[in-house]
Amino acid sequence: MSDERRFEIIRALSNNVVLANDVLTNKETILMGKGIGFGAKPNGSIPASDGRIEKTFTLESQQHLSQYQMLLNQIDPDVITVSERIISMVSEELTPNLNEHIHLALPSHIEYALYRIRHEIAIENPFLWELQTLNPKEFEIAARAAGMIADSFGVEVPEDEIGFLTIHIQSAAAHVPVGNVVQYNHLLKDLVALIEHRRGGPIPKESVDYLRLITHLRFAIERIRQGEHSPNPFRDKLKDMVPHEYSVAREAADLMEKKLNKSVTDDETAYIAMHLYRLFNKDLD
């Protein structure tokens, strides 16, 4: 036993979640698995080979670890459990590279959401339609997360709350603060409105064209935010080949520069123009 990697139990958070110290790395680690916390006692030991361990995670930031330990004393253990189940689902279905702050933000949010629901305090989500339309995958995962919360606590989770959960999922996946996620969704909405106005009509929100546009703009925002640069070999030609689309792309680039406080290269503008050309001339395909 002494030669086998093991975890020393610090405390059981619930029947399914244990806070332990990884003896190999000397880091505090969360262990998740059905029944793993049942009968677990401080200073006890769990071998790494224990079949009940379904998931582990370590908070690398000492600040996050301290905050998480404080959180454990303030929040219902069942909230921690359902939060980690949701985080596990997001990790498996969206990206494993989640911002570890979600382990703090999500249970805090769910605890407050349950308080509002139980006390019939309605909070309208003004971005619900945009969140559902602009982020269909994240919204679908958030809807299932809401189902987990409803089943665990015997409450009815309103659709507005699904929107708030979507924001937290986006935030963790993109490593962007929640406030910035809201800002970027506003920016997407404004960009779509600009493009529709210059196109001369709305783009059906259920169409493939709309999904392509949103996907392209989201990746463009992310590239601009991170300062990434991809040379566009058609950049100089596009100004003359598709002047209208390039002009609209330049307006979109100006709007992104203003909202993101980041410069947008001519190469990125040209990529947007290429996408707009296909969108504006779809009937000519």
Automatic annotation (TrEMBL):
Record keywords, A-Z: Repeat
Q: Which InterPro entries match?
A: BglG_antiterminators (IPR050661), CAT_RNA-bd_dom (IPR004341), CAT_RNA-bd_dom_sf (IPR036650), PRD (IPR011608), PRD_sf (IPR036634)
Which residue ranges does UniProt annotate as crossing the membrane? none
Give the PRD domain ranges.
74-178, 179-285
Pfam families named in the record: CAT_RBD, PRD
Alphabetized PROSITE patterns for the sequence? PRD_2
Family annotation (NCBIfam families) = antiterm_GlcT
What is this protein identified as? Answer: PRD domain-containing protein
